[in-house]
Amino acid sequence: MDIRVQEAPFDLGHEVEAFTDRQVNMGAVVTFTGITRDLPGAGMDRMEMEHYPGMTERALTKIAEDAMARWDLGDVLIIHRYGVLRPQDRIMMVGTASRHRAHAFEAAEFLMDYLKSRAPFWKKEITKDGSEWVEAKDEDEAALDRW
Amino acid sequence: MDIRVQEAPFDLGHEVEAFTDRQVNMGAVVTFTGITRDLPGAGMDRMEMEHYPGMTERALTKIAEDAMARWDLGDVLIIHRYGVLRPQDRIMMVGTASRHRAHAFEAAEFLMDYLKSRAPFWKKEITKDGSEWVEAKDEDEAALDRW
Amino acid sequence: MDVLYFAWVRERIGIPRETLDSSATTVGELVEELKAREERYAAAFADLSALRVALDQDLSDFDASLEGVREVAFFPPMTGG
Amino acid sequence: MDVLYFAWVRERIGIPRETLDSSATTVGELVEELKAREERYAAAFADLSALRVALDQDLSDFDASLEGVREVAFFPPMTGG
């Protein structure tokens, strides 16, 4: 397991390559990358991602351990940034490795669903007209029901 | 859409980076990478992946078009190798980009399920004791039922 | 006991953390104490359904006991990923 | 009409492709013609449930018409990915 919470950008290609390369006899690697989207209309200057240092690492570790316990996984990777993000910046990524493609896919979706609603991050969108905290979506909370 | 059928290896990190980089305002990128697993016991010398030139490209294009029609996707990438593959070699990858993470995940799983059973590839495993064509799994055919 | 605030809860209350002496035995009692202190607390805690609480960095709920708890954090529903 | 064979069908029949003059109007009739030719064809086509067929590079089935078809391919279930 490799869990990183960091302000600095990460090198997506390098991380995917390194994660895949260090697996032994895993037939399937799935990755998800989350990217900052621009806002329609006025446009977004930046997003500020606040987090709860200490609890964040703890929550992500718990989510990764739950995934490892539930599926036949060789490894899990989570990288999540905080601080200032611009449109098109990569916010976070997860990676899963398994002998079975269904396990790799399901575990990656599980990680994303839990990480969205159970890891202490908060997004604030800043436009030239002002700023607004992003509201949690009911569909994100509902997504947890399937696990 | 970017569909490639090739004998040569591909650079996974480079492909993931390039695919992600060329998306505009897509919040979610999912990739799947398939890796040659070794065989238990005697061990595998190599896998030979046969395909049906012409039909392969046609089938993969159709599968990618079906995914683009069914989900809200910005882009689809499929790279699939043929020829000789050694344990730990990357066989193939798919990538999906969407504004919604659920769409990116589902489309990637759909691509994989169809590609497994509907694209004309055949795997032969060669050990020092002989060679054997890999048999299609009932579960792979059954996986199509959910779409 | 350390009390931490995040996101708009932090902005509304005006500080990211404070250390309190409280006789509250549950999170709910602590919230009532805070609301009684000043208008900015009352505003932040007006709608508990819009809030989440963590005790010693684990998600919890508003009727949980504070016994042995050293760090309480209040924040809106998370929006990571 | 070009007839193509892949994987163990190709190995059993011994050639990857051939050009045939056939009066068969369906895939099924073509299979019967081939089986009647030589033992290696009979062996390859012994169990049709283990085979798939493509007509002009589209997956099809054994009762499909051959009218206008230029390329027929026989192979086992695919194992890509």
From TrEMBL, chains A, B:
Reactions this protein catalyses: 2 [molybdopterin-synthase sulfur-carrier protein]-C-terminal-Gly-aminoethanethioate + cyclic pyranopterin phosphate + H2O = molybdopterin + 2 [molybdopterin-synthase sulfur-carrier protein]-C-terminal Gly-Gly + 2 H(+)
Record key words, sorted: Molybdenum cofactor biosynthesis, Transferase
InterPro entries: MoaE_sf (IPR036563), Mopterin_biosynth_MoaE (IPR003448)
Transferase recorded as keyword: yes
GO biological process, one term: Mo-molybdopterin cofactor biosynthetic process
Pathway field: Cofactor biosynthesis; molybdopterin biosynthesis
Top EC class of this enzyme: transferase
Listed CDD domains: MoaE (cd00756)
Enzyme nomenclature, EC number: 2.8.1.12
Keyword hit for Nucleotide-binding: no
Molecular function as annotated in GO: molybdopterin synthase activity
Family: Belongs to the MoaE family.
PANTHER family from the UniProt entry: MOLYBDOPTERIN SYNTHASE RELATED
Assembly and interaction partners: Heterotetramer of 2 MoaD subunits and 2 MoaE subunits. Also stable as homodimer. The enzyme changes between these two forms during catalysis.
Function, as annotated: Converts molybdopterin precursor Z into molybdopterin. This requires the incorporation of two sulfur atoms into precursor Z to generate a dithiolene group. The sulfur is provided by MoaD.
Protein name listed in UniProt: Molybdopterin synthase catalytic subunit
Lineage: Bacteria, Pseudomonadati, Pseudomonadota, Alphaproteobacteria, Rhodobacterales
Name of the gene: moaE
From TrEMBL, chains C, D:
SUPFAM superfamilies in alphabetical order: MoaD/ThiS
Coiled coil: none
Protein name: Sulfur carrier protein MoaD
UniProt lineage: Bacteria, Pseudomonadati, Pseudomonadota, Alphaproteobacteria, Rhodobacterales
